[in-house]
Amino acid sequence: MRVKVKSWWPWPWGGDDDDVEPDQKPDLNPVLLVPGIGGSILHAVSEKGHKERIWVRLFAADHEFRAKLFSVYDPLTGKTNSLDKNTTIEVPDDRSGLYSCDILDPAVIFRMDDVYYFHDLITQMTEWGYEEGTTLFGFGYDFRQSNRLSEHMEKFKTKLQDMYKASGGKKVDIISHSMGGILVKSFLALHHDFFEQYVNSWIAVAAPFQGAPGFIMDCLLTGVEFVKGWQRQLFVAKWSMHQLLIECPSVYELMASRDFPWMDPPELRLWRKGEANSETSSVLERYGPDDYLEVMSAALRGNTMNFNGATIPTPMNTEILKWAEKTRLLLEVAELPASVKFFNIVGTSYDTPFHTCYGSKENPIEQLTDILALEADFSFVEGDGTVPIESSMADGLNAEMRIGIPGDHRGILNDERLFRLLKHFLKVGDPDPFYNPVLDFVVLPRWNVEVELELDAEERSETWQLIVSEDGKQHDHCVTAITPGLQNDPVLKAW
To answer: Is 119 a catalytic residue?
Structure first.
């Protein structure tokens, strides 16, 4: 017998919105949104108090970036400070912290997904009943700095306390994205008891728990473009980004963990020119996690930054490497309190840089310094385009659920499937006992569906075909053979 589901639910939660009184506010825990690297607005503040948005801006971006945000690391404080002594960098705290991680360039008059950071999620959550300043907050931060910087940790502690008070004594649900997950885990490791006292749940999205091997290695060697296509002409140049990132502890903290048991350890691969008397004109050299730092350091040994006419040496910073290694050791000892629920959502289905190669068999490099002017050739693994699944899944915590959804590292924040999962994990509205978050569909009970039956005398079982839709159209998928009466079994598999 073939059963075809005729109806579908756009949101997999039961209940009728018409049953809710207009003045009735939902009983919600406060939620804190924690962005990742590059996900917070930064203001440059002059000695006279004049504020200028320096990140993100799409016009005159590169010039102002170089003038106000070029930085050097101070090993005595563990901080990265702007080279412009007359400028300090601040993160705006308007709208209870949400302004800094909503639309990163509020001056943009047309939609650009690259700068619409938490905007769609904030919009969605307000529709669910969350209110800014009462049950919805943001935590922007200076992403140049270390994730465990004491200033960050103290501000995070204050934010949790303020949210607890504003919501009338309710514990906080945290939603972190990307490197924001490393900041939250650092806080957990350093302030375990405080975390237990003020946090109800933590949902990590696309977190690089064991690093982002290919992406970060190339960032440190050649820079990165956050905006692609013609729009990159409006934004910060790739090499300008490189000169900043080489002095940022946060970036070093995202390098591949050397202690993690990778199935295939990430490598730096170089096509080098063969010896003069060699039979081959080029040879492929491979360097694993125990060796490639030395090669990267050699390639960056002569790297310099030009600031106001002065040439400043900016090699690979060994002091930051030491700091980052201590951060990695700290993250390994973090333990989740038994009272806190942790959910790990990872992006899948995208080619993600893993092994990084420079040069080619036909065009080998002669000097290691040649790497800085080359485009990397990556070997890819499964992930979100930035963070491999192997890294994002390895949170080292007692998770309630680890679940992957198709989505790229940044775009996943605008994904309807993510919204459904968040609404389910946050327990917004009346729970639907028929929603399966792993498979992301609703198994409808028989009394709620219209069916068409196709009988076959030779059939020995029933086959249910669930038609699920995200856009209002019918899509035939999620097909499985089951025994009558087991349609709610959680072990159902989807194709």
So the answer is: no
